[in-house]
Automatic annotation (TrEMBL):
Gene Ontology terms, MF aspect: DNA binding
Coiled coil start-end: none
Entry protein name: Helix-turn-helix protein
HTH cro/C1-type domain mapped to chain residues: 33-80
Taxonomic placement: Bacteria, Bacillati, Actinomycetota, Actinomycetes, Motilibacterales
Location of region: Disordered: 1-31
Length: 279
């Protein structure tokens, strides 16, 4: 059994407070969160069996056991899916993720010239982007293909400080958690595993976030971006899921009439001028 499953169980166990599952907090606890025997009791397992799971000294457990553990540890939907994937249920065993964007989506992104638009893989590789996205985030064509990844740009950067996230610590933590979820679904994807190794080598901040074993799914949200040329932008991030490829089409919009909307239109003009100057 992979140590990933055991490490995930351990970190989730340590994050649950006893009072959250109806147990007295008590005094004299030497470890954070729940004890192993408490998790085993809540899940209807023997202490020895659960201990062996955490220590990766058992074969992969059944789906029923994993679901019982998910309930005992009060896992979120994303965490539950990740636990099942680590156990071999729902993971794309032997398969790499799709990085080929459908032709219809390529044409759609090309026509979307009024909002920043980009398509990302399950590992947050930036596969396609339009001119306004380039004006917002920088010219990704200048980067090596393996560096065109939102997690890499967050933790390592590209040497071009065109923008910054106003809530960078939260965004960085979410980025690592989303990559962790993808790694569970695609354990055999060599490009993803190489990305994780490179991030661990280059970024102590990523290594710290990765060690927490947090998982999350990419969601629609409001983003505050500080842009070098136009200032602060408050943008609504909308996601359109391409289920067959497990890709995301990201659209960044601003409320009409808002300061961010006007700045986005200014950025569109500036981007056009820069492209004209280059050509």
């Amino acid at each position: 059994m992979s140590t990933e499953l055991g490490e995930f169980l351990r970190t989730r166990r340590e994050s649950v407070r006893p009072e959250d599952v109806g147990l007295p907090a008590g005094r004299g606890r030497r470890t954070p969160g729940l004890r192993r025997e408490e998790v085993a009791s809540l899940a209807g397992l023997s202490v020895d069996y659960y201990t062996r799971l955490e220590q990766a000294r058992r074969p992969s457990p059944s789906r029923q056991v994993l679901l019982a553990l998910a309930r005992a540890l009060q896992l979120t939907e994303a965490e539950r899916s990740h636990l099942l994937a680590l156990g071999g249920y729902g993971a794309c065993q032997g398969l790499g993720m799709s990085r080929e964007v459908p032709q219809s989506i390529l044409q759609l992104v090309d026509r979307l010239d009024h909002v920043p638009a980009l398509v990302i893989s399950a590992a947050r590789d930036v596969l396609v982007w339009n001119s306004l996205a380039a004006a917002l985030f920088g010219d990704l064509t200048r980067l090596a293909p393996e560096d065109r990844n939102l997690v890499w740009l967050t933790f390592v950067g590209c040497g071009e400080d065109r923008f910054a996230h106003a809530d960078r610590p939260g965004y960085a933590r979410d980025s690592a958690a989303e990559l962790r979820a993808a790694s569970g679904r695609y354990p055999q994807d060599q490009q993803l595993q190489r990305l994780v190794r490179r991030l661990l080598e280059r970024s102590p901040e990523f290594a710290e976030a990765w060690a927490r074993h947090e998982v999350a799914e990419h969601q629609s949200r409001t983003k505050r971006i500080i842009h070098r040329e136009v200032g602060e932008l408050v943008l609504d991030q909308e996601l359109l899921v391409l289920p067959e490829q497990e890709q995301r089409l990201i659209l960044l919009t601003a409320a009409p009439g808002s300061a961010s909307y006007e700045r986005l239109q200014l950025l569109r003009v500036l981007g056009t001028q820069q492209l004209s100057a280059v050509s």
